Amino acid sequence: MDIAKWTLITGWIFVLIWIPIVILSNRKTHPKALFVLFFAEMWERFSYYGMRALLTLYMVNVLFKGLEGADVKALSIYGSYTAMVYLFPVIGGLIADKIFGFKKAIVFGGILMMLGHFTLAIEGSNLLFFTSLSLIIVGNSYFKPNISSYLGTFYEANDPRKDGAFTIFYMGVNIGSFLATLTCGYVGQEINWHYGFGLAGIGMALGVIVFLLSGKILGKNTGLKPENTILPAKRPFSLSWDVIVYLGTLIMIPICAFLLDQNELMSTLMLIITIIIIVYLIYEALRNPDKIAGQRLLVVIFLFFFHAIFWALFEQAGGSLTLFADRNIDRMIGGSEIPASLFASFNPFYIMILAPLFSWIWISLNKKGNEPRTSIKFFLGLFFLALGFLVIVLGGKFFSSAEGLVPMAFLAVLYFFVTVGELCLSPVGLSMITKLSPPKIVGFVMGAWFLSISLGNKLAGVIGTLTASEGNVGNETAQQSLINYTNAYLIWGVVVVGGFAILLLILTPKLNKWMNGIH
């Protein structure tokens, strides 16, 4: 049996043992709803990360194979795609707040994403490819922010279990990612690209089914449309607001397909939307009659930018780091070569191992009164991210072979430190939004928080192009590509991220004051 098959089988066995351990060890501490949403999100992330593991490799090796600047085009589309995946949740969160409620938004979004993955499984034109990605983008806008916001409704605002709950929830995300990277990555690269995309669609279908079958556990009166919402009485053609949303969704699909192939336009749009959203959040913070609530919202705005920088480098995993693994990592073990897509499984594997530990650490430190404040956790996230990229830079500059290949241990260590940084920052950020946001706009603020990830993903595409070959793929030597990667990672991953970490440390006392007792 080759190493890829062995890794795939071992990974599934590990997860089937690990999930019951996580549930049984936390079932008395947390409500059952956490575990329902855990499984729904797990399968949704299986679909997303399964497709993501293949996307850049598929574009470079199939869709744009042999074209001039294939790397740049693929990484630009990847950046635009992932940016829109996290951009439109701003709208999806607002629609859930005002019209659909959490439950309806989650189901509708899940169905759209399922259709997108299944159409990716059909071998066809570039138009079909972009339409498939658009279905996933629009569907994700309803699913992603609202399942996180919905989980927050099962806990009180300052519940000490909340950070731990979101860490467990985040582990569900990464179990799905781990299984997807191993399964879809292997099937896509070793058997057929479109079979890998089809498996991602099956994962999304399972996520929707799990959610629909768990109504009794979630409760009939949870996640519904807010009763006190006031909507404009005037409606186009006297249509109901639900129908207006459905029609708007259909219109957005071709718009997204167009934007995927328009990199400069997408960058301009991102900048305009970011400015509008930030100005609106500042307006909401300053006009709030409750000074404390306004200051807490200002903390979210400040951390927005640090969050974006984190994801700009973290999301190299689906773009330039995947190509780096393909071209500059020694992937041979015992005469068998590991597919490049499988290396992304390091991150979710570490999450599964470390997430319960972090959940326990935060709760234990909270009981002793020593839990780090949110801003310090964000600082730690940036610090470990920079440390991870420092490792790969050192590996590339001092430990590479004459052929320009770096031992895979350096990539494993990079993913370890990046994962530690992610656990300090990402699930804590989701929890923070549910604690610091004014209740009436929590869905919108959660969507705005995903906008920071969107901005980071677009920056990730820009940074990724700095590592890319300027000509046809295969024209440059491994030594040349290694220089491109290590130089870009040194500047952006080490110097820029490290500088932002120091700046955040300086701002921490002021941010802690504005949080007014919230940790």
Strand line-up in the sheet with most strands:
1-4
Report strand %.
Answer: under 5%
Rg, Å, rounded? 22 Å
Look up the CATH topology: Growth Hormone, Chain: A
Structural class: mainly alpha
- How many domains would you count in the coordinates? 1
Report the span from N to C terminus. 50 Å
Classified in CATH, the superfamily is MFS general substrate transporter like domains
Number of strands: 4
Overall mean pLDDT stands at 83
Question: How does this model look, in words?
Answer:
With 519 residues, the chain is mainly alpha-helical. The protein has one domain (3-8, 33-224, 242-515): MFS general substrate transporter like domains (Growth Hormone, Chain: A, Up-down Bundle), CATH 1.20.1250. Helix content is 77%, strand content 2%. The protein contains 18 helices and 4 strands. It has a two-stranded parallel ribbon. Strand 2 (332-333) and strand 3 (336-337) form a beta hairpin. The longest helix has 38 residues, at 478-515. The termini are far apart. The model has no long low-confidence stretch (mean pLDDT 83).
In short:
The chain is mainly α and 519 residues long.
SSE blueprint and pairings:
Elements: H1 3-26, H2 32-63, H3 70-87, H4 89-100, H5 102-120, H6 126-152, H7 162-190, H8 193-212, H9 215-218, H10 241-260, H11 263-287, H12 291-314, H13 320-328, E1 329-330, E2 332-333, E3 336-337, H14 346-368, H15 374-398, E4 406-407, H16 408-436, H17 442-465, H18 478-515
Parallel strand pairs: 1-4
Antiparallel strand pairs: 2-3
